[in-house]
Each structure stands twice: as structure tokens, then as C-alpha cells.
């Protein structure tokens, strides 16, 4: 979770409360005092805030990109307010103690939308001011430097490229007009281009790394990071090709404490139990439709690799023919897979086929959030060809995960590598707030049917 995301959430929380109180003042001529509110009135405010934040998250208002124009942003805000209105009115009709007056609700939503739209302009304006632009000087001119430079110029974040500094006999694989003169040394070059950050992107550091100059820049207040760490900050995944075992050892994160395990387990048990209770009335209908569509069992059991590389049986609603792998053995699913039944295609697109995995969560085989469990046949193959693949088994696999919400279904070794980048990023930054954000992202994936196969 980025600082920008957390700050935006904090401001929108304030905006929501301010909008609600302003609507009360416009309608009744006074502002409610928190000390005099009953617990039901406080509950109303909390629900109001949560719904507005959820709708904004659902419409991707918190997804910052310089490519999103003010018109598209206004459309997203308008749609999020419509979604909030329908959710709130549904809740208020179902539960009387949450009821707001119609004028208060409409005025508060309007004020919140205006405040949210104004904050967009503030972010865009301040992002272009000299004091707020994050200029990055890349140390190196080789293939790694080129990769980082292309990442910065991709126009999907707030970093701008100040240039490349060539301090070694690396092959020049970056645009020559972006190379900064090194006659006066690194510190002078940093001051000359006004860079706030140095990204060390040397393909080989031994004997060529300008230690004293980089140290001087660091002590002068310039942020210094290596290429893998910067790549992680920008993309939300790890740069596996340039990571060494020592990087894993000395980098922050990768700490799954006992307290975190207990907290995740309690959350898993509570959410899985609630989820199964909610879906229980629909299970007979799902079972009947599966049985009518094709012969075979309702539930599908498949061996998967879990925490500590222990094998367990994963449960799913059957979405393929009963003899799907009788002649092929274990193979990855593919687009328009002929083995998938008509009902199975809908179950997969809607992710309904994954619901029985809540039983795996209750049993302790899985967690709600974590790397997706893979089949042992694939794990054996991928461990042989992909470095650090086994490290994904240090935590429980999940019903959903960071890789699932950020990358479509994988059906090749290349896809497995890309998903591993996200899985290791999750393990490195594992926390309960991160899990909550992934669950919310999963809701978007399910609603918009992204990435299923």
C-alpha cells in the first residue's frame, strides 16, 4: 500500500464526515456534536464513510495515473456517487437506525463529490510544481539502467527522469541526449539537474561503484536506492532478475511474525464462516445446475502444494468435464478451453467455482489472502527453472492474492515468473491492511470479470 493511497483514503474520510456535517447544517441549521451523539448515530456516520470509500475504490478513483484526464475523473466520481446512493438507500431501507433524510443524503453526496474533484486538481497542480516533482538520476547506462529509465518514462507515476550518469565502462544502451556530463563528479551532476533520488542501476558494481561520491550525496539529503528496490516501489512486484540472496536477507520485510499469523487466522475463520453462511442457501441451486449441465460430481478435489510444500486437497465446484485430463494429464487451462462446460464457464468467470475453498480456509489449508496454490506437477517443473520459486511456500496459499488481482490467469512459465514477482512482493510486505486492500481489489475483479479462464 503506497503512502499516496493511504493519504488519499485519510483525506476522503475527512471529506465524507465534513460533507455529512455540512449537509446537516444546510438542512437543519446546526452541526451535530460527537459528544452528544448516540451509538446509532455514530454507526450511521461510520457506515456512510465506509460506503463512500468503497465506491471510490470500486470505480478506481484511487488509481493515480497522469493519463487519466479531468473529464474521466469526473465521470468516475459521478458513478461512484451513484453507486454510493444505491448502496446507502438499500441499507437505510433494510435497517431503520441507519436512515438519513433524503435531502441530507443527496446534499452530502454532492458536497463529497465536489471535495473529491477539487482534491484531484490539487494533486495534479502540486505534482507539476518544482518542489513536488520527484526527479530521478539513474546511475548507470547499461541494460538495467535502460529498464529503469523506461519504467520512469511510462507516464504512470510521479517520477521524472533527470538523466543517466555514466561512471563505469558499461555499454551505453540509453539515449545519448539523456546522459549527464560526469566531468565534475556525481554530486555536482545531481545538483545541476535538481535530482532528489539516485537509483543505482549498474549491471556490475565491483571496482566501478563510486562509493565516496554516493555517500556524499546520501549525507547531503539525496535519497539513494538500488534498482530492485525502486522497481518494487513503482510496480508493486519484485525484479527477480537482479535480486540476490543477500538482497532478501538485508531488505526490510519478509517477517511473518506469530502475532500476524494469529491475526490472519482469526480473520480467516471469521470471514470464511460468514461467507459460507451467506452462500449456504444457494449451494443446492449451484449443485443442481452443475449436475444438469454435465454428469459427474458436484465438488472437484485436486492436490495442491501448500505452506511448507505440504500437499492438501483443494475443493472447487466442478467446471470441467469429468474426464477432462484423462488423456493429457496435468495441463494449464487456456482461453476457450474445450474441457470447460457451459455452466463451468460461468462459474469460472464469476469466480463462484472458488467458493468451496472457504472449507479449505476453515481447515487451515489455506488463508483468504496469499499466493495461489499450484499443482505439484507444475511446482516441480517451475522450481527447476525459476529462481526463488519455492519461497512462495513460506506462507499459506490464498483464495485470492496480490498476483490474482494484478495479473491475469497464467498458463506458461513466463506467466508463472510474472506472478511470482507479485507473490514475493506480497510476502515481503504482508500485513492485515494489505490483505484488506487485496480483498477489495478482488471484489472489483469479480464484478468486472477480469482475468478468469
TrEMBL record:
Keywords assigned: Membrane, Transferase, Transmembrane, Transmembrane helix
Compartments in which it is found: Membrane
Main location: membrane
Top-rank taxon, per record: Bacteria
Transmembrane segments: 7-30, 42-61, 73-93, 99-123, 269-290
Family: Belongs to the bacterial sugar transferase family.
Topological category with respect to the lipid bilayer: Multi-pass membrane protein
Family annotation (PANTHER family): COLANIC BIOSYNTHESIS UDP-GLUCOSE LIPID CARRIER TRANSFERASE, UDP-GLUCOSE:UNDECAPRENYL-PHOSPHATE GLUCOSE-1-PHOSPHATE TRANSFERASE
Keyword field contains Transmembrane: yes
Protein name: TIGR03013 family PEP-CTERM/XrtA system glycosyltransferase
Organism: Geoanaerobacter pelophilus
Amino acid at each position: 500500500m503506497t503512502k499516496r493511497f493511504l493519504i488519499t483514503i485519510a483525506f476522503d474520510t475527512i471529506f465524507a464526515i465534513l460533507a455529512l456535517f455540512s449537509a446537516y447544517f444546510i438542512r437543519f441549521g446546526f452541526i451535530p456534536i460527537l459528544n452528544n451523539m448516540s451509538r446509532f448515530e455514530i454507526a450511521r456516520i461510520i457506515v456512510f464513510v465506509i460506503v463512500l470509500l468503497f465506491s471510490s475504490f470500486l470505480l478506481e478513483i484511487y488509481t493515480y495515473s497522469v493519463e487519466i484526464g479531468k473529464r474521466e475523473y469526473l465521470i468516475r466520481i459521478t458513478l461512484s456517487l451513484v453507486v454510493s446512493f444505491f448502496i446507502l438507500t438499500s441499507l437505510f431501507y433494510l435497517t431503520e437506525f441507519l436512515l438519513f433524510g433524503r435531502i441530507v443524503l443527496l446534499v452530502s453526496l454532492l458536497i463529497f463529490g465536489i471535495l473529491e474533484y477539487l482534491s484531484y486538481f490539487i494533486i495534479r497542480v502540486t505534482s507539476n510544481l518544482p518542489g513536488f516533482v520527484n526527479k530521478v538520476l539513474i546511475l548507470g547506462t547499461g541494460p538495467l539502467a535502460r529498464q529503469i529509465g523506461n519504467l520512469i518514462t511510462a507516464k504512470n507515476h510521479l517520477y521524472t527522469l533527470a538523466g543517466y550518469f555514466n561512471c563505469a565502462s558499461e555499454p551505453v544502451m540509453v539515449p545519448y541526449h539523456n546522459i549527464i556530463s560526469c566531468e565534475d563528479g556525481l554530486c555536482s551532476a545531481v545538483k545541476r539537474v535538481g535530482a532528489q533520488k539516485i537509483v543505482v542501476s549498474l549491471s556490475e558494481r565491483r571496482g566501478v561503484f563510486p562509493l565516496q561520491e554516493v555517500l556524499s550525496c546520501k549525507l547531503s539529503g539525496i535519497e539513494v536506492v538500488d534498482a530492485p528496490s525502486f522497481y518494487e516501489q513503482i510496480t508493486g512486484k519484485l525484479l527477480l532478475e537482479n535480486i540476490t540472496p543477500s538482497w532478501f536477507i538485508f531488505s526490510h520485510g519478509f517477517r511473518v511474525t506469530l502475532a500476524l499469523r494469529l491475526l490472519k487466522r482469526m480473520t480467516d475463520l471469521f470471514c470464511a464462516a460468514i461467507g459460507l453462511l451467506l452462500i449456504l442457501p444457494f449451494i443446492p441451486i449451484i449443485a443442481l445446475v452443475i449436475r444438469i449441465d454435465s454428469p459427474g460430481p458436484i465438488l472437484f478435489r485436486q492436490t495442491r502444494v501448500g505452506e511448507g510444500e505440504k500437499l492438501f486437497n483443494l475443493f472447487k465446484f466442478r467446471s470441467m468435464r469429468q474426464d477432462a485430463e484423462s488423456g493429457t494429464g496435468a495441463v494449464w487451462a487456456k482461453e476457450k478451453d474445450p474441457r470447460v462446460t457451459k455452466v463451468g464457464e460461468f462459474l469460472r468467470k464469476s469466480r463462484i467455482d472458488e467458493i468451496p475453498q472457504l472449507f479449505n480456509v476453515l481447515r487451515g489449508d489455506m488463508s483468504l489472502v496469499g499466493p495461489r496454490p499450484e499443482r505439484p506437477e507444475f511446482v516441480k517443473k517451475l522450481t527447476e527453472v525459476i529462481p526463488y520459486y519455492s519461497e512462495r511456500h513460506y506462507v499459506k496459499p490464498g483464495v485470492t492474492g496480490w498476483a490474482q488481482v494484478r495479473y491475469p490467469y497464467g498458463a506458461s512459465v513466463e506467466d508463472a515468473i510474472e506472478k511470482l514477482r507479485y507473490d514475493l512482493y506480497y510476502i515481503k510486505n504482508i500485513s492485515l491492511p494489505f490483505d484488506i486492500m487485496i480483498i477489495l481489489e478482488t471484489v472489483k475483479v469479480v464484478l468486472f470479470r477480469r482475468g478468469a479462464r
